[in-house]
Specification:
- The chain is of the alpha+beta class.
- The chain contains nine helices and 19 strands.
- The protein has helices spanning 2-25, 34-40, 269-275, 278-290, 342-349, 365-384, 386-396, 419-435, 438-444; strands at residues 49-61, 66-77, 82-86, 92-97, 104-108, 111-115, 130-140, 153-158, 164-169, 193-200, 204-206, 210-217, 221-228, 240-242, 244-253, 256-265, 300-304, 309-310, 316-318.
- The strands form five sheets. It has a seven-stranded mixed sheet, with no helix packed on it. The chain has a five-stranded mixed sheet with strand order 15-16-17-19-18, covered by helices on one side. Strands 3-6-5 form a three-stranded antiparallel sheet.
- A hairpin with a 4-residue loop joins strand 1 and strand 2 (66-77).
- The longest helix has 24 residues, at 2-25.
């Protein structure tokens, strides 16, 4: 009887393994297109020019869900002839100019081919590399987010008092969903970005970095100008427009006093003052583990958003409902994840991993998410002890699906499996255990 049961068990085990293996092998593979290659690779027409600064002006029309604007791009020119400019349909590029020239261009799907120099000649231009500037004028009805931040685009919502509430969530999808740019992670604007937002007087506009100017315009409108001076990923340049109120504090950090600003809907002010106490706690723990906050010059902002959240550099999006955990849930199932606000901790952790240290291809997004996911463990350990941290990281291990590699496909804007979060964190935890020396591990971080 024992042998029969044992054989039956082994047969079931073998069959289960076979079915699982076959189902993974037989999963349909994505067929990549020429458009995917244009979007995700550093092709020849993205070379010979390096972005230095974006100066974006945008005026959204809430009722029509449209916008118009311009983007003046400062770049280092090494002899570019045909330039790939990304702007996703149905947005439209109207014209491209500099101080003396209006340039020709043609469209191919989500790409515009800009004839910066004579493309009929096969000769390479022998020019002295120099800094140049061109301005792109654009308009259109950008893709609307379906399920932000995962299925992103422009977000057109209303707050509880029926006021317009607008922003963008475009990680993965790309910043070219709403403004013309060089939409690849390997070329951040070296000298940051300026974001100018024209909005009705009844609303407040917030951008990355610091407010440098607020100007009254005609027709009951106001121009808000924000500037970030550090290099920044395109998808992190984000406007927030709504009925916002502000409170702030100065955090005594490793590099001096850090300006920490908080923006929320006016009716959530008291909730935020209580919930956002996790922000300075986060800063203390992460400066301990990772070193100084990377963007003291631009400050830190936590901004209520009409979606769950996103790691927008120096302007972190928050939409966790002023609840502990992940919207009131503990992703680890251990109780440890209910001691802190997931979105404040996780999305702020990206200031170090994704915004300061980032990969050139989204296929390696596991670097961003694995280390940031592990930052949740390190935050837990910092305040509740090593055992609590170990309990948390062991708890999230159950979320690993082993469905596909955590490294995506290079050159086609394709990230890997969602296991990049939990498997990535547990891999880093294993490295820490093998190191057997937390001081060396901390130096590694």
């Amino acid at each position: 009887m024992f042998n029969i049961q044992k054989k039956t068990f082994l047969l079931i085990l073998f069959f289960s393994f076979f079915v699982t293996a076959f189902s993974q092998i037989s999963k349909s593979k994505k067929e990549f297109t020429h458009a995917d290659t244009l979007r995700g690779s550093n092709g020849m027409y993205r070379q010979q020019w390096d972005v230095l600064h974006y100066d974006i002006t945008v005026e959204p029309n809430y009722s029509a869900k449209t916008m118009e604007g311009k983007n003046t791009m400062l770049f280092f020119d090494e002899g570019a002839k045909l330039m790939q400019i990304d702007l996703q349909e149905p947005m439209i590029l109207d014209s491209v100019k500099d101080i003396s020239t209006t340039y020709k261009f043609r469209r191919e799907g989500n790409v515009y081919w800009l004839e910066y120099r004579d493309t009929s000649s096969n000769l390479f231009y022998k020019i002295k590399p120099s800094v140049r500037s061109i301005t792109f004028y654009f308009h259109g009805k950008p893709r609307e987010a379906v399920r932000p931040p995962w299925d992103g685009g422009w977000v057109w919502k209303k707050d509880k008092n029926n006021n317009p509430w607008m922003t963008v969530a475009c990680q993965g999808l790309g910043a070219s969903v709403w403004y013309p740019c060089k939409d690849i992670q390997s070329d951040k604007p070296d000298s940051g970005a300026t974001l100018r937002m024209i909005v009705p007087d009844s609303l407040v506009a917030i951008g990355n970095g610091r407010l440098v100017e607020k100007t009254k315009l005609s027709n009951n409108k106001t121009l808000y100008t924000y500037k970030v001076i550090n290099p920044i990923n395109n998808y992190c340049i984000i406007p927030y427009i709504g009925k916002y109120v502000n409170f702030s504090e100065k955090y005594p950090g490793l590099n001096g006093n850090l300006d920490m600003n908080y923006w929320v809907m006016d009716y959530n002010l008291e909730k935020a003052k209580q919930q956002f106490t996790d922000a300075p706690k986060m800063m203390k723990a992460f400066e301990h583990w990772f070193g100084p906050y990377p963007f003291y010059e631009d400050g830190y902002q936590l901004i209520e958003a009409p979606h769950l959240g996103m790691e927008h550099q120096s302007a972190v999006a928050y939409g966790n409902g002023f609840k502990m955990g992940y919207g009131g849930r503990d992703l680890s199932g251990t109780g440890e994840g209910l001691k802190w606000d997931f979105i404040i901790i996780h999305e702020s952790g990206h200031e170090w991993f994704a915004n300061s240290i980032c990969t050139k291809d989204i296929a390696d997004m596991w670097v961003h998410e694995g280390f940031t996911n592990y930052s949740e463990t390190l935050f837990t350990e910092y305040y509740w002890g090593k055992k609590a941290g170990e309990t948390y990281v062991e708890g999230i291990r159950k979320n690993i699906e082993n469905d596909a590699p955590i490294i995506g496909t290079y050159g086609v804007n394709k990230e890997g499996s969602g296991d990049m979060y939990y498997k990535g964190a547990n891999m880093i935890h294993l490295i820490r255990q093998l190191t057997k020396n937390d001081e060396k591990f901390k130096a590694l971080l």
